[in-house]
Amino acid sequence: DVVHTESIIETAFKRKERKKFHALIQKALKEKIRHIIFFWSSREARNLTDIEDHDELIKAGKIIIHHVSEGRVYWRGTPDADFTFREMNAVMNKSESRSKSSMLKASLKTKAIAGWWPYRHTPMGYVHHKNKDKYGNPIKGTAKLVVGPEAKAVRLVQREFELRAQGFSYDEIRRKNFEEKNLVPPDMRKTYSRHAIEERLKNPLYWGYFYLKGDTTRYDGQHERIIPAKYLKSVADINRGNGCKLRTSVAVGDDIFRGWL
């Protein structure tokens, strides 16, 4: 019987970034779950280190690997020739992954040069808009960053910048926005955190430019700015440590005279 299923959205190419995957393998070993099933062989690994580690576990009789799409099962009685095929398959998967990664990077850079945010995730207040064909279907590759239709989301991020420009701390911004009626949408109240606020207040996209992962080149965006220029200037100064804060930041519950001589 199947005792556990898991959907993992992680790279199979970069071993160090497979934290959830490795945690699940350790969980299987600890609970003595021997049969581990992958629909595609490429989802087990696209790097030789993971393959070699799993081969040792297989030959020690600790796990049995199943690749559904290929109809293959690897256990300690599997012939050496099949293990050789498995390693060759891993090399091919790694090569395919490298090729796709290069193509993706080129595509992201092309879009960034044109001034459009290329990633799927959009910062609060923005959404992707795609052109549509004559049948009303979205056209692939035409996504452009536009101001989102949710006025509350736009207002919330504007309020965060407004309060930060006045010198409020991230914790105080969070508290004040919770206190303001209907400002934080109900579906956001559990995830509305200090960390998320800080990330938005340091996200260059709100200033009209952005960077690609692993690329120090600045790309000027064509998207509309939703934050008033006066707030952007003040928050930028504060982020650089040059801002003239209007008040001392005091966290809730802290001694009001903390830090005074």
Q: Could you characterize the architecture of this molecule?
A:
By secondary structure, the chain is mostly helical. Helix content is 41%, strand content 9%. It has eight helices and seven strands. The strands form three sheets. Strands 1-2-3 form a three-stranded mixed β-sheet. A two-stranded antiparallel ribbon has the order 4-5. A hairpin with a 4-residue loop joins strand 2 and strand 3. Helix 3 packs antiparallel against helix 4 and helix 5 (151-165) packs across helix 6. The protein is elongated, with a radius of gyration of 25 Å. The model is unreliable at 246-261 (pLDDT under 50).
Largest sheet: 3 strands, mixed
Please state the overall shape, judged from the principal axes of the Cα atoms: elongated
Assembly state here?
Answer: single chain
Could you state the order of secondary-structure elements as H and E?
HEHHEEHEEHHHEEH
Strand content: 5-15%
Structural class: mainly alpha
How widely separated are the two ends? 68 Å
Total helical segments: 8
Low-confidence stretches: 246-261
**Which strand order spans the largest sheet, edge to edge or round the barrel?**
1-2-3
Rg is 25 Å
Q: For the residues shown, what is the average pLDDT?
A: 88
Quick one: how many beta strands?
7
